[in-house]
Amino acid sequence: MNLLEDQIERYSRQIILKDIGGVGQATLLDSTVFILGAGGLGSPAALYLAAAGVGRLLIADSDRVELSNLQRQILHTTSRVGEAKVLSAKKALGDINPDIEVITISERITQQNVASMLDRCDLVLDGSDNFATRYLLNEACLKQKKMLISAAVLGFEGQIATFAHGVDPKAPCYRCLFPNPPQFAPTCSSAGVLGAVVGTVGTMQAAEAIKLLLGIGQNLIGSMLLINAFDNIFHNISIPKLQECPTCGG
Ligand SMILES: [Zn+2]
Predict the structure, then answer these.
(1) Using CB atoms within 10 A as the burial measure, which of 95, 106, 159, 233 is most buried?
(2) Rounded CA gap, 71 and 247, in Å?
(3) Ligand 1 mean position to 246 CA, how many Å?
(4) Measured in angstroms, how far is the CA atom of residue 47 from the centroid of ligand 1?
(5) What's the Cα-to-Cα distance from 142 to each of 54, 62, 135, 160, 171, rounded to whole Å?
(6) pLDDT digits (tens, 9 = 90+) for 186-243
(7) SS3 letters for the chain?
(8) pTM for the predicted model, two decimal places
(9) What are the sequence ranges of the domains in the chain?
(10) How far is the CA of 142 from the centre of ligand 1 (A)?
């Protein structure tokens, strides 16, 4: 794929990076990323992936924009409260970069439709906020041999990890980390979250996606980055593969 003149100008600041270059940019333009959720994590992730010229973004979300979303879900605006989130997202991303294709899916992800949702993508980015959806996406990624960039946030803290068991049987899956859902899992709606922290973690998901698509840098396969913005502490811990994992064990 040859880059057009205005593509070379638009992406010039990353094309001059020695690890990306024109070849890397062409790879990004030819890539498809599935993003589950146009919310707090999906917003910054989609904005940066669109701006970077990832050629196709598949965005799934069945919710509508609410006033209480705007504190952190930066794809959406006050004037779009009440609109479907995926349509609001498509407008925001199209304004930033009309060079890419945004495909919207306004259905809730289920056991029945997940396979077709992931069918066309190179990589999966999870911006969901509950264990049932994360387990569903993890299983689908295993079956369809997709890498999964998972993240979670709460309060001033966040975490991000990449699960690649679908492409590397030695790598852990999401369920190796959380074999069972916690009995009490506080949510952002019950316990609160700082928008800037969600933005940091979603942006890290975008950076991880770009590196995985290009096969560059140190990735988060088999490890998890823990971010505590309150105390300014970042930790990187390793995630072992669980032999008795309910999803990938045995
Ligand atoms: Zn597992």
Answers:
(1) 159
(2) 36
(3) 7
(4) 30
(5) 23, 24, 11, 18, 11
(6) 777 778 999 999 999 999 999 999 999 999 999 999 999 999 999 999 999 999 999 9
(7) CCCCHHHHHHCHHHHCCCCCHHHHHHHHHCCEEEEECCCCCHHHHHHHHHHCCCCEEEEECCCECCHHHCCCCCCCCHHHCCCEHHHHHHHHHHHHCCCCEEEEECCCCCCCCHHHHHCCCCEEEECCCCHHHHHHHHHHHHHCCCEEEEEEEEECEEEEEEECCCCCCCCCCHHHHCCCCCCCCCCHHHHCECHHHHHHHHHHHHHHHHHHHHCCCCCCECEEEEEECCCCEEEEEECCCCCCCCCCCC
(8) 0.96
(9) 31-141+185-218
(10) 9
How many angstroms is it from 221 CA to the middle of ligand 1?
13
- Pair of tokens at residue 162: 């990449």
Q: For position 21, what pLDDT does the model report?
A: 97
Phi and psi at 93, nearest 5°, equal -75, -35
Tell me the two tokens of residue 182.
């916690």
- The values of phi and psi at residue 228, to 5°, are -120, 100
Q: How far is the CA of 55 from the centre of ligand 1 (A)?
A: 31
Long-range Cβ contacts of 13-20 (<8 Å, 24+ apart): 14/52, 19/214, 19/216, 19/217, 20/214, 20/216
Ligand 1 centroid to Cα of residue 28, in Å, is: 29
Q: Report every protein residue that has its C-beta within 5 angstroms of ion ligand 1.
A: 173, 175-176, 245, 247-248
